[in-house]
User: Which sequence fits this backbone?
């Protein structure tokens, strides 16, 4: 992995590369062992959660939000460990041939963080996760949405509270090119779909031609297994 290229020989000597999950030794840094890769679930289309119905064309997850993917997201998001990124890249590389997004997409839109939260974390984890994925597909990432209110951690809230808190949380960035475009909304995880629905609704109301959803990991229902 190029993220480590400079120091790799030394690092490999001091810290032999191992699978991020079961710690079995692997050949290259950033790699997973085959068994753990398999357990991550693979790409799947999601049954549209109720809040997304009617405003989202399709929703996809690159893996299941448990075990390995869950701990990688937590490392990146809550512990600010960018060292999780090579493992995430490896996983995305592994599943990329299974990802069949609509061909008409024009731009990807990461779910935004509130400015204060982003300053505190130092980066938007959604952009970090999908950076190489989007570059490889020649799909620009555009910050078309703004989060205007800082919210408490959503996982602590009941569904009706989440909806209320998020209803006015997102607005289009001033001058954002949304109308008439086919957009791919990105997030790290999808659990209830409330955050996605709030963002998708803003894009929809601003005249987006279509909104599709892609998340890194989800524990929501699968439409079909590949
Ligand atoms: Zn493993």
Assistant:
């Amino acid at each position: 992995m190029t993220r480590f290229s400079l120091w790799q020989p030394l690092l490999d000597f001091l810290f032999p590369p191992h699978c991020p999950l079961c710690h079995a030794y692997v050949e290259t840094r950033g790699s997973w062992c085959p068994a753990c890769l398999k357990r991550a679930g693979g790409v799947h289309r999601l049954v549209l959660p109720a809040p997304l119905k009617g405003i989202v064309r399709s929703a996809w997850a690159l893996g299941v939000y448990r075990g390995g993917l869950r701990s990688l997201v937590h490392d990146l998001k809550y512990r600010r460990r960018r060292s999780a990124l090579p493992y995430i890249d490896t996983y995305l590389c592994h599943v990329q041939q299974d990802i069949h997004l609509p061909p008409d997409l024009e731009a990807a839109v990461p779910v935004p963080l509130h400015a204060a939260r982003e300053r505190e974390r130092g980066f938007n984890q959604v952009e970090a996760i999908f950076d190489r994925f989007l570059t490889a597909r020649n799909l620009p990432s555009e910050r078309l949405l703004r989060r205007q209110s800082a919210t408490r951690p959503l996982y602590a809230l009941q569904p009706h509270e989440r909806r209320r808190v998020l209803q006015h949380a997102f607005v289009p960035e001033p001058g954002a090119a949304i109308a008439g475009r086919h957009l791919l909304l990105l997030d790290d995880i999808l659990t209830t779909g409330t955050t996605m629905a709030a963002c998708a609704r803003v894009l929809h109301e601003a005249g987006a031609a279509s909104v599709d959803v892609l998340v890194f990991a989800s524990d929501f229902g699968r439409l079909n297994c590949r």
About this structure: The radius of gyration is 18 Å. The longest strand covers residues 182-190. The domain at 15-224 is CATH 3.40.50.2020 (Rossmann fold). The helical segments are 8-14, 34-39, 67-77, 85-95, 115-121, 125-137, 159-166, 194-205.
